[in-house]
Specification:
The complex is a heterodimer of chains A (about 240) and B (about 350). Chain A has about 240 residues and is an alpha/beta fold. Chain A is built from 10 helices and 10 strands. In chain B, the strands form 2 sheets. Chain B has a two-stranded antiparallel sheet. Chain B is globular. In chain B, strand 2 and strand 3 form a beta hairpin. Classes of the chains: A alpha/beta (about 240), B mainly alpha (about 350).
Chain lengths: ~240, ~350
């Protein structure tokens, strides 16, 4: 079995007096899109931030491609080829769209061929290329946030709730964009609350509850099991529809 | 439907206008100057006051621009900023007094051969002190505003006393170089040469900062870091190194402003940085924390208003800056050019 791109073992994270992650164990297979699901407050965002080094794990191991990164500083994690799209998208509102992308292209100017590929994923981006990012709508900001994360080839993409607050037509665009990303064999870990989105894209799934992983497996298996969905998430796919 | 959802429903393909300059705050500078003309009455006096106000504004901008970047990028309340001004002034004074012979010759080249090293010494000394402050005093208190205020105020007091130890407790007179002494007479208006120099240096500094911030990758990083330092780190950049660089550069700029201010006042005191600190904070707040452009416009407004009120209503002069700040904050609560902090 190939070594996973990312593996977490017994990861604990404390924020002030709160014990948020309480021994998280799961793996993100190489080249697959893994969904991290769970109720509000389960610790999903903390998990991504801990992987990224934005919060320091108090115990446990995080290995990226076999290399221990639980003590690594955030820029070092990013330089290993990890891109992060936070829940609030983290765009720089005072910079233009093109400046946001230039900043993310660490090797200098974004590659023209790569930009064309991104415009293929998000055709609307061409129309607001020179606009201030702060003036974009919610959907446009999410497109920019994803585009910024993939402006250069990355080994691992961490995305926190990409569909939050978006209209259905834009979510459909996001689904297509992630499908295209999957075709490039990019390894992706997505935190999501939208079960339909997760079902449409996920290869594997990990479900969190109260700071622990309570289920891992194939996404299609979870999507087909209403009883398990209800048990793990409190709501089945049927209830979503 | 949530606000975010409704925002998301907007046509994603709709073209948006490009980034535009918000010209309204900038227009306040000529509007204020023109509004003062009928009140002052005499055009030559108005010209003299306007040039004096612009020169004062430029010197305040030199001193304040570093503080606003430090505030915006590092979220540090640095009350010790005044000491970089004082140390810069003493550094320049030390060089100028050693080169007094060159200043006595009636030659611009001779004056410049003393002034340029003096200004460079001011920048270097203040920058070095800034590096020490960041490493020793400020780094342990990142994220804690109360401790920042206490430790930087303490640092200001200690280093003011150290200035007395190194340079002595007396006021040091600073003769102004001959080439920039006196005034140009334009019509019936007298325009001090030194004020023209201050305006030129201030404009050059603003242009250089604008180019650096808007046309270079370092500038892009600083502008992004002012908004969201965590995201800059997530993109793989070491923001702490940027912090140190900006802090040292900001301190150096304060040193430059201190040297210019000392030559304007023709004397140097250990308290001179502390004395202008309140005005500097007002300018930084008026401009919008972290905004260099806002700091520039705010400094112009403060400089002009101080000179006009000093002439028209001297008793109001001291309070004019506070009044201006109140009016600006009532209009734009986050300053003239607010920075969108994450």
């Amino acid at each position: 079995m190939p070594e996973p791109m990312l593996s977490l073992a017994g990861v604990n994270t404390h924020i002030a007096q709160y014990h948020i992650l309480q021994g998280v164990d799961f793996e993100v297979p190489r080249g697959a899109l893994t969904m991290l699901l769970g109720r509000n407050g389960a610790g999903k965002t903390t998990c991504l931030r801990t992987i990224m080094g934005l919060w320091r794990a108090s115990a446990g191991s995080i290995r990226m491609d076999g290399r221990e990164i639980s003590r690594a500083a955030t820029p070092d994690v990013a330089q290993l080829g990890v891109a992060y799209v936070p829940e609030n998208m983290g765009i720089f509102a005072g910079l233009t769209v093109s400046e946001n992308l230039r900043l993310a292209a660490r090797s200098g100017e974004p590659d023209a061929g790569r930009l064309e590929w991104i415009f293929g994923l998000f055709p609307a981006m061409k129309t607001f290329w020179n606009a201030l990012a702060g003036n974009l709508s919610g959907g446009q900001k999410q497109m920019l946030a994803i585009a910024r994360a993939i402006v250069e080839p990355r080994r691992l993409l961490l995305v926190d709730e990409p569909t939050k607050g978006l209209a259905p037509s834009i979510i459909a665009n996001m689904v297509e964009a992630f499908r295209e990303l999957k075709r490039t064999d990019t390894t992706v870990l997505v935190v999501e609350q939208n079960f339909n989105f997760a079902k449409a894209l996920g290869d594997t799934v990990a479900v969190m509850d109260s700071g622990r992983i309570v289920h891992t497996g194939r996404m299609d298996a979870l999507a087909a099991d209403s009883a398990l969905q209800t048990k793990l998430l409190g709501l089945s796919l049927e209830a979503h529809q | 439907m949530s606000a975010a959802a409704s925002a998301g429903a907007k046509d994603p393909g709709a073209a948006l206008p490009g980034a535009r300059l918000d010209w309204i705050p900038l227009a306040l500078v000529p509007v204020l100057a023109l509004a003062a003309l009928p009140l002052v009455g005499s055009p030559p006096t108005w010209v003299t006051l306007t040039v004096a106000g612009l020169a004062m504004g430029m010197m305040i901008f030199m001193m304040a621009s570093g503080l606003t970047l430090v505030f915006g990028l590092m979220d540090v309340l640095n009350f010790a900023h005044g000491i970089f001004i004082s140390v810069g002034a003493y550094g320049a004074a030390s060089v100028l007094t050693r080169m007094a012979g060159r200043l006595e010759q009636p030659s611009l080249a001779s004056d410049l051969s003393a002034m340029v090293p003096a200004v460079l010494a001011a920048i270097a000394l203040a920058g070095l002190l800034g590096w020490f402050f960041e490493r020793v005093l400020i780094r342990p208190v990142y994220g804690d505003h109360l401790k920042q205020i206490l430790i930087t105020m303490g640092g200001l007091i200690v280093f003011e006393q150290l200035i007395h130890v190194v340079w002595g407790p007396d006021i040091i007179p600073l003769p102004r170089p001959g080439a920039i002494t006196g005034a140009f007479i334009v019509g019936e208006a007298a325009i001090e040469r030194y004020r023209v120099l201050a305006v030129i240096v201030g404009l050059a500094l603003f242009a250089a900062m604008w180019l650096l911030l808007n046309r270079t990758r370092i500038g892009l990083l600083v502008r992004a870091g002012v908004e969201n330092p965590e995201m800059v780190e997530s993109l793989g950049y070491r923001i702490k190194r940027l912090f140190v660089g900006v802090f040292v550069a900001g301190s150096g700029l304060a040193g430059l402003g201190g040297a210019m201010w000392a030559m304007y006042q023709e004397q140097v005191t250990a308290q001179m940085g502390m004395q202008v600190l309140v005005v500097i904070f007002i300018v930084v707040i008026i401009g919008g924390l972290g905004s260099v452009g806002g700091c520039f416009v705010g400094a112009m407004l403060v400089g002009l208003l101080a000179n006009y009120t000093g002439y028209l209503a001297p008793k109001l002069s001291l309070g004019s800056n506070i009044l201006l700040m109140v009016l600006v904050l009532l209009w734009r609560p986050r300053g003239l050019y607010p920075i969108g902090k994450a």
